[in-house]
Design goal:
The chain is 42% helix and 21% strand. With 634 residues, the protein is an alpha/beta fold. The strands form six sheets. It has a seven-stranded mixed beta sheet, with helices on both faces. Strand 3 (28-33), helix 1 and strand 4 form a beta-alpha-beta unit.
Length: 634
């Protein structure tokens, strides 16, 4: 353990150090979020000595809860338990919790002491040090706050071992920003020489980079504690970053990801003003690339983005203030003009937002993504927003080849909501792609449906064939693999009305087959009668025979070697149920492996419990068709 300043300690497994600083307080509040609480509250209870005066409070996890509504119940709890001016708050968590815990201590009874125990890399090098405490206003980040230094800061790098990879990368974004704030290049050289050790979470290296990053930040804090001058340099990249976070409601990018892009924005401005050259800019981008941190700016509507940059708390007199840097590392505050912002963002016209709407038999799906155009090829790059809504457009279409009016209205209501979201993110009309699959293909009144949607939402529906649907699925899956992956894959997508099978590899598609079997179609055909579901053994056997009969067309694939890959809800739900996921985690599901036994076990679980209780990991929206889909999958 290192005592790098009188009040800041860095080390490994040093949580018990808190006992040295809790004796003089009558009550102690451990303040955290629900995710961290599940991981660490028990450890804290065993590590702290004076258990009778320790209280625990956890809020929901996420930047969207960094507001006064989340803090008022904390005040209620402290008052109910007679917290006094001699009480202590310990913030246990990432940047949101450190900011909020500090704000609570600064405002409760006009100020009590607090200790920061940051659990994320971002909080360890940023939020826990410097004494800036705040909450968000709906219109702006960190707009309501104060300056209050923590009583102590205990930084334990062991916490980083349970940090999600993306959150660690976010912390590296902020940490690498610090390397631009010192003319001493030994810090950056140390990072560049230890990239693999950092990625592998080597304790000694982590302690060293956290310590050096804190020393850089502390230098600016000590010479300008109330941010009247040079401390503002710590905001390198933050004017753009805060606007980007706000534009996407703090849901698309982590703070560190946004800061990395913001640093490049400030360097683009420095380049525009002749302070640096393109070589300096490219070297800066490569520093972030060492940790797979994207720094490309996104081409966004200047009409919406520039006003968000004006709302940054560094601004005054309606000016937009940001930070410049020159070749020698000298920093300066500057006002950036609107035309400069537009010129910089225009450089990234090939990095834009695209919205994709999939109107299926059972559900509508929206995906808004950052994409990159390379010549005429548009590559998926980063997921911004996604949503799924069960609309049952294909209700009874299997029987009468007709889209019911009430099903059209449900779908239309969903599409109107999607249109509002798309417009909010300023996706250009040419970058809105909407396609309808099996139910629309099969319906005799499809033209009426397509026209009605366009008239009321201006969303143009492309009706695609089963083969086109299979092609889209395959291209999406193959892009997930490394370019050196040469093996064959057979991608299948069990939809509501049809199932597509596509065989191929990185070099292209060998064979596509679309079958008229799907989770909604099989459910309506065998398990639904006059609104009542019946999954008896006899109905299941009939369904199984029907599926096997339809699968005869797949004989071609039996002579091929391939890895079988399932996409969409029927397959992903199998994994989420197996893992008993209370919160859906796409990272855990992506490229996980399913066995025949696990599928069968899940099917038995569905049949046994579908009408009795909720099943962990099963989205209630899929409840009506999950048994039919699982039978096809089996």
């Amino acid at each position: 353990m290192k005592e790098i300043f009188d009040d800041i300690y860095v080390g490994s497994n040093i949580v018990s150090k808190l006992n040295d600083y809790t004796k003089d307080f009558d009550k102690i509040l451990i303040f955290s979020n629900e995710t961290i609480a599940d991981l660490y509250f028990e450890k804290f209870k065993s590590s702290l000595n004076e258990k009778d005066k320790i209280f625990y409070f956890a809020i929901k996890d996420g930047e969207e809860y960094k507001n006064i509504e989340s803090i008022l119940p904390v005040y209620d709890f402290m008052l109910e338990n007679n917290f006094s001016r001699k009480s202590l708050v310990i913030s246990l968590g990432g940047g949101v919790i450190c900011d909020m815990g500090g704000y609570i201590s600064a405002t409760y009874m006009r100020g009590i002491e607090f200790i920061q125990v940051p659990t994320s890399l971002l909080a360890q090098v940023d939020a826990s040090v410097g004494g800036k405490v705040a909450i968000n206003h709906p219109k702006c980040k960190n707009m309501i706050g104060s300056f209050k230094n923590p009583y102590r800061v205990i930084i334990d790098v062991e916490f980083l071992k349970t940090l999600p990879k993306r959150e660690f990368k976010s912390g590296m974004g902020e940490l690498l920003k610090h390397s631009f704030l010192t003319k001493d290049k030994s810090y950056l050289e140390y990072i560049e020489n230890n990239v693999e050790k950092i990625k592998n979470l080597d304790n000694e290296v982590l302690e060293n980079i956290v310590e050096q990053s804190i020393r850089i930040k502390k230098h600016y804090v000590d010479i300008d504690p109330l941010e009247k001058g040079e401390r503002a340099f710590l905001n390198l990249g933050h004017t753009y970053a805060h606007a980007l976070e706000s534009f996407f409601d703090y849901k698309a990018f982590t703070h560190g990801e946004a800061v990395a892009k913001g640093v490049i924005f400030d360097l683009e401005l420095s380049l525009l003003r002749g302070k640096i050259d393109t070589k300096y800019l490219e070297k800066a981008k490569n520093i972030f690339k060492l940790f797979n941190i994207d720094t490309d700016l996104i081409y966004l509507s200047s009409d919406k983005f520039i006003p968000l940059m004006r709302k940054d708390k560094k601004n005054s007199f309606n000016k937009i203030i940001t930070i410049l840097i020159d070749e020698k590392g000298n920093l300066s505050k500057t006002e950036v003009q609107e035309d400069e912002i537009i010129r910089i963002i225009d450089k990234y016209k090939n990095d834009f937002l695209r919205a994709s709407i999939d109107i299926g038999t059972n559900s509508c799906r929206l995906l808004i993504a950052e994409v990159q155009k390379d010549n005429e090829i548009i590559n998926f790059f980063f997921e911004i927003y996604k949503d799924l809504e069960i609309v049952k457009l294909g209700e009874d279409v299997n029987k009468n080849k007709f889209l019911k009016e009430e099903a059209i209205e449900r779908t239309l209501k969903c599409l109107k909501k999607y249109r509002e979201i798309i417009d909010k993110y300023s996706v250009e009309e040419k970058n809105i792609i909407c396609f309808a699959t099996s139910a629309t293909r099969d319906a005799n009144n499809r033209d009426y449906f397509i026209k009605k949607v366009y008239d009321e939402t201006k969303i143009k529906i492309n009706r695609i064939s089963g083969e086109e649907e299979a092609y889209i699925n395959f291209k999406g899956v193959i892009s997930s693999f490394d370019k050196n992956f040469k093996e064959n894959i057979l991608v299948f997508d069990i939809g509501g009305g049809s199932t597509e099978f596509t065989l191929g590899n990185i070099n292209g598609i060998k064979k596509k087959i679309s079958l008229n079997i799907g989770s909604v179609r099989i459910t309506e055909k065998f398990f639904l009668d006059n609104g009542i579901y019946n999954y008896c053994k006899e109905n299941r056997e009939k369904a199984k025979e029907w599926v096997i009969e339809n699968l005869q067309e797949l004989e071609y694939f039996k002579n091929e070697n391939f890895t079988l890959i399932g996409v969409a809800g029927t397959t992903t739900t199998q994994v989420s149920v197996r893992e008993k996921m209370e919160v859906y985690d796409s990272e855990k599901i992506h490229l996980s492996c399913l066995t025949s036994k696990e599928i069968n076990d899940n099917l038995n679980l569905f049949i046994k419990n579908i009408n009795k209780q909720e099943i962990k990991g099963l989205d209630p929206k899929r409840k009506d068709v999950i048994i039919g889909g699982a039978i096809i999958l089996k």
